[in-house]
Amino acid sequence: MITEFTPIQSTLGGLMIGLAAAAMLGLNGRIAGISGILGGFLDGSEGRGWRGMFVLGMLLGGLGLVLVSPESIPGAATDSLPLLAVAGLLVGFGTRIGGGCTSGHGVCGISRLSTRSLTATAIFMGAAMATVGLARHVVGGVG
């Protein structure tokens, strides 16, 4: 479990995410909702090229970080790749049911004062807190 308090890095990361989302909306007129971008790429929607490049950039960015600075991701859960795959599929399923993900609702929607996004974010943050509490205190499986 990561327990370090990193306010400077966290603030800089949040600013970078916010600037990227604002740039995508301001320059391209598109919401930086990752589940929608990936979903549109997979189902062959219009703009498949830019969507593919966006997803590829995210994957290569993560891979590049791991290769250049593996210690920057302490406690990366590589012991249970099948569990991570199932978790990823469940998150993807949930974002489809909820009509968006943390980036679409949490970053872009809340900044636009969308009631739908405020509601969705409150629900998935509450569900995340309940899941962590359950995993730590009932199942005992998360650090």
From TrEMBL:
Source organism superkingdom: Bacteria
Membrane topology of this protein: Multi-pass membrane protein
Transmembrane segments: 12-38, 50-68, 80-97, 118-139
Keywords: Cell inner membrane, Cell membrane, Membrane, Transmembrane, Transmembrane helix, Transport
InterPro entries (UniProt xref): Sulf_transp_TsuA/YedE
A single GO cellular-component term on record: plasma membrane
Main location: membrane
The keyword Transport is annotated on this UniProt entry: yes
Compartment list: Cell inner membrane
Family classification: Belongs to the TsuA/YedE (TC 9.B.102) family.
Protein name: YeeE/YedE family protein
Organism: Enhygromyxa salina
